[in-house]
Design brief:
10 helices; single chain; alpha/beta; binds magnesium ion; 262 residues; four-stranded antiparallel sheet; six-stranded mixed sheet; binds adenosine-5'-diphosphate
Length: 262
Amino acid sequence: MSADTTLLRVDSLVCRFGGLLAVDHLDMEVAEGAIHALIGPNGAGKSTVINLVTGVYRPTAGTVSFRGERLAGELPSTIARRGVARTFQTIRIWRQMSLLENVMVGFQCRTRSNLVDVLLASRRSRADESATRRKAFEALELVGLEAGAGRLAGSLSYGQQRLLELARAIATQPSLLLLDEPAAGMNPQEAGALVELLFRIRRQGIAILLIEHNMRLVMRVAERITVLSFGRKIAEGSPAEVRSDPGVIKAYLGQSEENAAA
Ligand code: ADP
Ligand code: MG
């Protein structure tokens, strides 16, 4: 991969929790505009990678760079402003707020107004508010929730709540979107619609790093897949390459045996 198409790059990334090596010397690159999946059995370290990239966790060692500049050590808000947005494995929405408000809150890190502007209700902050409202509505349109923009978020189905989180992340106009199991809890129709949505997002020039257990979905959307097991990268390549990799099959069989035993 040539340097000018690399958007996100992690080098020898390590994250240790006490005696546990959650991420063990991971090297990975996400290309500009790509849909790149990060898969692996439960506990492999996938969510930890997203938390390291977004500044929630500090790496024990190694570097994260975005457009060739270092990210590791920056605050989550700074990283968000630089164009990295995410959703969470556990849904985080405000149930008592409308869909539109939920998206607008997530958008705040991107508006220009400072606190003084807000307090003075200056012209600039009102202009920002209407621009924010418009962009929030556009994000709801992208995920197909615009008809219920004024509804309370708590009234949404589980799959729709995942779409709302996605809208909130997209509204910040990121160049990289990190999605932690967006299809979890979705029915097959919703998961099918999510495939189309991910392609639409990519067409806007947004690269996606996708953590997902729904392998049908992963194989359909990802052009490149990185496989983690116990924090280590055990395979990387196209869906066809990864699917037929004996190490990958073994890692997943280990997990299903565990599940069977449990
Ligand atoms: P995955 O998302 O692939 O299922 P995680 O990244 O959530 O895996 O977790 C990887 C490992 O790190 C697991 O063993 C998990 O228990 C552990 N872990 C994750 N976060 C923490 C934390 N904040 N403190 C201690 N251990 C953690
Ligand atoms: Mg996880």
